[in-house]
């Protein structure tokens, strides 16, 4: 069973999903191998809209061209699948305190919350990929057919890491997923199978599931940041356990499909 919700809200689920990780040490870290230039999305800001160049994605930076607007068969959208993260008031307060402490080490860090709501937090299941308009429905239906058979599950967040986007222009402070990795891997297998039918880049072979909570585009180093956060918040991170994964969301342009997992 699935719920389809066509939303005009265009929260980010793009730039901070093309990343590499480091568990200790400095900001930033080395980047993961990037995907196909013609198929993996590229935006310029973590909170940019999915199609940030006007109403249609500008493919010039990806080595491609945008087809004529008179031929909608070839119009493109950036798509990504993810698990939305819903936090309680106490959990949001903890994340806010973590970000505030991190900014004492790295003043350029900016929270990924919107007015303290943290509604855009998520765990990615795919990279941002570019689909033609006529492929969108087939992609979402294929993902729905597979993911809707999966059961809802619980997961937890724990250790701190920093991640970078593919061109090392932005660094993200994140909380890694601990419990629930098997369930996330199952959903990645589902989305990879659908992406393969379109010959699109699949997710990383060994995904590092995480939730980004802050970002910076300034190249600065903070050797003790992760160690300090781990030491000071070790006794409180248990509050970020038992998080509920009840659906997969697939966003493409200004449309969002919500796929309910089995109860």
How would you sum up this structure, described in words?
The longest helix has 17 residues. 22% of the residues lie in helices and 24% in strands. The chain has a single domain, classed as Cyclic phosphodiesterase (Cyclic Phosphodiesterase, Chain: A). 38% of the residues are buried. With 263 residues, it is an alpha+beta fold. A hairpin with a 2-residue loop joins strand 12 and strand 13. The radius of gyration is 18 Å and the shape is globular. The strands form three sheets. Strands 1, 3, 5, 6, 12 and 13 form a six-stranded antiparallel sheet that branches. It has a five-stranded antiparallel sheet with strand order 2-8-9-10-4, with helices on one face.
Short description, anyone?
The chain is α+β, with helices and mostly antiparallel strands. The chain has helices spanning 89-105, 133-147, 181-197, 225-233, and strands at 3-5, 20-22, 76-84, 110-111, 122-124, 129-132, 153-155, 157-164, 171-177, 210-216, 243-245, 247-252, 255-260. It contains four helices and 13 strands.
Average of per-residue pLDDT values: 78
Number of helices: 4
* Computed Rg: 18 Å
Shape: globular
The number of domains? 1
Distance between the termini: 10 Å
Strand content: 15-25%
**Element-by-element helix/strand order:** EEEHEEEHEEEHEHEEE
Helix and strand content put the structural class at alpha+beta
């Amino acid at each position: 069973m699935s719920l389809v919700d066509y939303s005009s809200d265009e929260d980010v689920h793009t730039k901070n999903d093309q990343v590499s990780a480091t568990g200790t040490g400095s900001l930033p870290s080395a980047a993961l191998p990037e995907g196909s230039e013609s198929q993996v999305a590229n935006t310029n800001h973590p909170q940019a809209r999915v199609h940030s160049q006007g109403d249609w994605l500008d493919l010039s930076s990806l080595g491609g061209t945008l087809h004529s607007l008179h031929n909608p068969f070839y119009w493109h959208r950036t798509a990504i699948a993810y698990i939305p993260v819903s936090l309680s008031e106490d959990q949001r307060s903890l994340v806010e305190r973590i970000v505030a402490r991190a900014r004492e080490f790295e003043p350029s860090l900016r929270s990924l919350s919107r007015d303290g709501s943290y509604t855009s937090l998520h765990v990615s299941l795919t990279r941002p990929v570019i689909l033609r308009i006529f492929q969108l429905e087939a992609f979402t239906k294929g993902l729905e057919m597979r993911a809707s058979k999966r059961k809802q599950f619980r997961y937890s967040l724990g250790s701190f890491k920093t991640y970078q986007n593919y061109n090392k222009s932005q660094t993200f402070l994140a909380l890694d997923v601990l419990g629930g990795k098997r369930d996330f891997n199952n959903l990645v297998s589902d989305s990879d199978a659908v992406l393969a039918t379109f010959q699109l880049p699949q997710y990383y072979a060994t995904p590092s599931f995480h939730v980004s909570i802050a970002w910076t585009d300034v190249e600065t180093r903070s050797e003790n940041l992760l160690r300090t956060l781990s030491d000071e918040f070790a006794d409180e991170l248990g509050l970020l356990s038992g998080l509920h994964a009840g659906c997969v969301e697939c966003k493409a342009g200004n449309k969002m499909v919500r796929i309910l997992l089995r109860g």
